[in-house]
Amino acid sequence: MKDEKKAPKLRFKGFTDDWEQCKLGDVAKITMGQSPNSKNYTDNPKDHILVQGNADMKDGQVHPRIWTTEITKIADKGDLILSVRAPVGDIGKTSYDVVIGRGVAAIKGNEFIFQLLKRMKTVGYWTKYSTGSTFESINSLEINNAVINLPKEHEQNKVGKILSYMDHAITLHEEKKRQLERLKSALLKKMFADKSGYPVVRFKEFCDEWQGTKLRKISKIVRGASPRPISDPKWFDNDSNVGWLRISDVTSQDGRIHHLKQHISKQGQAKTRVISEPHLLLSIAATVGKPLINYVKIGVHDGFLIFIEPQFDLEFMFQWLEMFRPQWSKYGQPGSQINLNSDLVKNQIIYLPSREEQNQIGIFLNQIDSLINLHQQKINNINSVKKSLLQKMFI
């Protein structure tokens, strides 16, 4: 393998030439943006698309948001768009001829240059130019003089092509995930009954009226408890190997807890409220109304409510709480963080169908969750592979 400064760690077979160091401005035409007068901004799609900054790009593509009747500086269809103001270094492409404002620059570069600029953002290349500034930005001189390493054109094309395929795969999975999320959002609104006693959408074999009741009548609802010294009689269990669920841990994509890294105490000198078999939990602080189901033994923080001895299908209630979640924000009590009063939860009225219908609804919506998570996992996997390639296929 050649000197690492002259060649990347990972290359396509057949390429052995040294990469050449040069300046970005020597191999790509760069046009700095200039903002039109704001009085010429419009919302008319027949006018010229205006790209001002990161807000006008999504998933690496320009998404028209504002239009203008004034032409200042332009970027042609296929150009790369670099954000030159906070956040500096974000990069996208344009599928349109656009007017560019002072927050961006247009770069005429190939797929290799596009991926290289992505990597420069990831490794913090531009940070050195904006550190200490009151407003993060980079100028024309800094962009033109950016030092890069380039292989011959054929190798550029090969590298750019494989990374472009990966971007395309990520975009497809993201779009499928969004479609499923929209589908589920629509179903959540229609598959649960309101005070009329009948949902808009249901499985054809069910026709009975749903019955209203309060949550406290169909489950004992208790609050979690933060770890305290083992001598404190208010706390229920101590185990140094039990993960402790805290508000900051509510990051599970689908609200299902299969493992936790946190521990109550290395010496076991603490007690907390510990649960083992699957329980339904509801966050009442910070992430107000977020439902969770645990599948491992955990200690539960006092920012959660625990549904004990439930008289309902667990998955059905999880999905109902997901549907009802926006309503909890209205009841959040102001303070250092939003908190939901447990009595409001206990007295909340819910309309329930038969246990069999609950079970079918829960299974159906859970299957959609599984598909959403499958696409998210594929996105994560491809991103992980791509991140590794970006580290090894560039100098």
What does this structure look like?
It is elongated and about 75 Å long. Helix 7 crosses helix 9 (355-392). The chain has a five-stranded mixed sheet with strand order 3-7-4-11-8, with no helix packed on it. Strands 15-22-19-20-17 form a five-stranded mixed sheet. The chain has helices at residues 24-27, 111-122, 127-130, 140-144, 153-190, 215-218, 314-331, 342-346, 355-392, and strands at residues 20-23, 29-32, 41-42, 48-51, 57-58, 61-62, 66-68, 73-75, 80-83, 91-93, 98-100, 104-108, 147-150, 211-214, 220-223, 243-245, 256-257, 273-275, 279-283, 291-294, 298-300, 304-308, 349-352. With 395 residues, the chain is of the alpha+beta class. A hairpin with a 2-residue loop joins strand 5 and strand 6.
Number of continuous helical runs: 9
Task: Output the strand order for the largest sheet.
Answer: 3-7-4-11-8
Q: Kindly state the mean pLDDT as a whole number?
A: 88
Instruction: Report the major sheet.
Output: 5 strands, mixed
Give the CA-CA distance, first to last residue.
13 Å
Shape call: elongated
Tell me the fraction of residues in β-strands, as a range.
15-25%
Which bin fits the share of residues in helices? 25-40%
The helix/strand class is alpha+beta
Unreliable parts = none
Beta-strand segment tally: 23
